[in-house]
Write the structure tokens for this entry.
Amino acid sequence: MNGHFESAGQVRLLFDQVRNQMPPEVDDQIRSMAKEGPELKRQQYSGGAYLDQVEKNAVYLREGTMAVNAAITEYLMHGQPILSPEEIPAFLTYTRVTRPQQTVLLHLNFIRNGCSGCDVHDEHGPYAAFRQLLLTGDSARYIDEMEFSYVYFQASCLVAQQFLVAMLSNYGLAGCARLISAWELAEVVQERVFRWTDVCLGNIQPVAPQETQFLQRQQFVVVTKAQ
């Protein structure tokens, strides 16, 4: 790929093209893996132990998704890291696991007990609704919401990892979005990961936005394999 992206619309098109080049059975695989998560835990645990597992996974998988999203943003903006195909799996595991291990217990403590200050205190926002719901004492609804998040973020974590592997495998994409502001790029990455997660789960239909349709008419092409 030559040149650099100049708009968020071009980055959206990149994600859509990468996704559209993946085998059609990928969506079914992701949907199946995501939905079986709570089901498997329910077979292994009950009562408070089951709730504990669902809570941990809901938070862990969201943190994993956001860590992978951040790695995609870093690669598109700064072109790092440049890895051989053999190095990608280890980097993927490191990205998906290390950050969540550092934050999940702190976020869980906030949900269950509140927090007056911790290393990730400013990042508790996405979990505030869980905290408020828990305080209402509606345990059935709380479990339902946690199960929904478990499924959704299992799917989003898988989708994000697919995008990251595709980007890292195409060295021409390294630093391709450096002309876009960091905050806007991060927003677009998250938006597209969540959009394709919703498509995988059957929540929405993949209808291309007007800007993407325009760019497609310009025959903008992205290769998703390393040369």
